[in-house]
Amino acid sequence: MRNPSRPVIPALATILALTACAEPGTVPTPAAAEAPAPACLTSDLEATVTLRTATDTSLERTALVTLINVAGQDCTVDGWMTVTLATAGRRVLPVPTTKLDEPAPAHEFVVRPHQAAYAGLRWTSCARTEEDCHAGGTLRYDMGQSKDGPAAVLADFPTSRRNGITMNELRIGSLQQFSDRALDW
């Protein structure tokens, strides 16, 4: 019986020997890496804060912040946004605020034009008569540390809440790529 691979072995050996003796050619250069997208500026994003329906008589309120990229280019977010409660006269109220690694640790990601990044908000509502209670009519946002960014659009806030958002503390979750994860904490 004849082995069909027998004539192939000398041919492969010859090809390998010739390849090893060949003059080195030019090595193709890798394609230039794309420049990383710049950080999203506050002016690149429009915010809507959507109040979630309270499930019980608790004073804890939950809202989803949706940040739509309205710039004509990709930009990146990493970490947290700044959110502040302000009066109709633009006075920022001194609500104690904590930025949390919730629902997951912060990480950088790209937000493409007309796409969104999300963050969860939780706060404890209070009676205006309480000493540490702050009442305002707008929520302002900023991608840096400014406390006087533009006003976010408020969605699903009861009419009475639009002019009287009360809180004595605010917790801000890390920015997320998907809305269904932003409130998982």
TrEMBL record:
Specify whether Signal is a keyword of the entry.
yes
PROSITE patterns assigned: PROKAR_LIPOPROTEIN
Keyword Signal in annotation? yes
Q: Which domain of life is it from?
A: Bacteria
- InterPro entries recorded for this chain? DUF4232
Q: Where in this chain does the entry annotate a coiled-coil region?
A: none
Keywords assigned:
Signal
| Residue ranges of domain DUF4232 in the record | 40-141
Give the residue range of the signal peptide.
1-22
Pfam families cross-referenced by the UniProt entry = DUF4232
Q: What is this protein called?
A: DUF4232 domain-containing protein
Task: Tell me the organism.
Answer: Actinoplanes campanulatus
At the highest ranks, the source species' classification is: Bacteria, Bacillati, Actinomycetota, Actinomycetes, Micromonosporales
